[in-house]
Every structure is written in C-alpha cells, then in structure tokens.
Design brief:
Elements lengths: L1 H9 L12 H20 L4 H4 L2 H19 L15 H30 L4 H29 L1 H25 L2 H28 L6 H27 L5 H22 L12
Helix pairs in contact: 2-4, 5-6, 5-7, 5-8, 5-9, 5-10, 6-7, 6-8, 7-8, 7-10, 8-9, 9-10
Amino acid sequence: VMALVLAMIVLRETPRLRVRFDFAGAVALMFGVGGLMYALGSVRSPASFAEWIPTSLVIGVGGIAAFVFIEKRVEVPLMPLDFFRSANFSATLATNAFTSAAYMGAFVVAPIWLLELGYSVTTASYIVLLRTASLTIFSPLGGRFGEAWGERAASIVGCAIMTIGLFGSAWAAWDESLSGFVAALVAQGAGHGLSQPSITAAIARSVTLHDLGIAGAANRLMGQGGAAFGITLLALAYGGRNTPEAFALAFAIGGLLSALAVATAFGIGIGIDSDSA
C-alpha cells in the first residue's frame, strides 16, 4: 500500500502510444515461462509434484517457441527480437541472470550452514544480514564507479568480487571457519552492490528511450529466472546432506555461476549506438 501511494504521488506518467497490445505474445510467454519455472521448482519437490516435470517442460518449450513465432509476425511485439542482435543487450541480460543465480542461491544455503554449526535462527539471521548491509553500502559506490570507469568495468569488477566471495564461502564451509564465512558474505554483498547499478544502466542504454520499459522488464524477468535457477541448483548440490563437503560444493557452484557472469560482463557496452546512448 505504501508503494502504491508513493507511486501515485511521485511518479509522472509517460506519453501514451496508440498501439494494439500483443495479447497473443503475452499468453505464449506466460505458458513458456510458467511451464519452465514450474518444472524447475518441481525438481526439489516431492514425487507427486515432480511427476509433472516432463509435461511442464513440454508446455514451457512450446510456449517459448510460440512466443518467438508470434513476435516475428506481430506488428507491435511484446518483446522485439531484434533487441537480441545487440551484444550489449544480450550480454547484460545474461550477466544479470548469472549474478542473480549465484547471489540468491547462496542466500538460501548460507543460513542452513550457520544453523548446522549450532547457531540460533536469530543469530544466523544477523550474520546473513551482513551481506545485505554490504550490498546497501556498495550499491551507491557501484553507481559512481560505473559513471567514472564505465559500466563494463564496474560490472566485471563487481562480479569478480562476488565470485571471490562465493569461492571464499566454499572454503569457509569446508574448513568450518565462521570468520572466513563472514568475510565471504561481505564480499558477496559488495560485489553484487558494485555490479547491479551498471547492469541496470547498461540495459537502459542498450535500447532507445521509447523501449526502456520493455528492456527493463526483460532484465527483471531474467533476474527472477536466474534466481530461481540458482536456488534450485545450489539446493540440489547441498541435497540436505549436512556435511562440510556438501555445503562447500553448493557454494563452489555459486562461484562458477558468478564466474560466468564475469565472462558475459565483457560484452556489456558493445554495440551501443548514438541513439541508444
């Protein structure tokens, strides 16, 4: 309710365009994303849910295929596929997906490791909040860093720091070192905070102002999808086995996902034309 009130007071309406809404594309995307997300979420579910995975995969793949087919032919597409010809647009989406997967996957596993060490839920919550605190502190710095050194450099540095933090968590989990784990959490938050402002700015610069809402929505969708994928992947790696090896494996996989974000971040800023800029 507070968000609604603030939006009505603060936000200014943008000019409206007389276009026909791509209803068919929206429905196809709903089935595509919904089917794939249900299949992904059911991997960790009881057998009664998991038995629907093949069906939901078929629905998801079919929905995405139908979405692509529709978007190529509709007059005003929900998501112009030409956007993906821009290296900056595609690289930014991929970077956001991988960083979200690594960050949120580790976010779910971290408190489980702390509880396994014998800490209370309250204490574990305070420890994990250190990661959120470092993200809050470094996000404004990330915005300044992106302005001074460029969005690609800020994204690469931020993702690299988060990668170090995730592999540090893997080592700390293996060694059962609380101090090392806390330092790794802070590094994860700092890296995520440094990279996110530039990722958001890069996706905005990859399209014209007219298409900013579409690009932002695509970036949000990829972030949410990446987060769901990362949570599932790291949870499967942990597998309910409360051993140092299982936790170390989960965090190491998060580090690999973050390393992929470093690689894709090198494509940020490529192919920006004067209109997009």
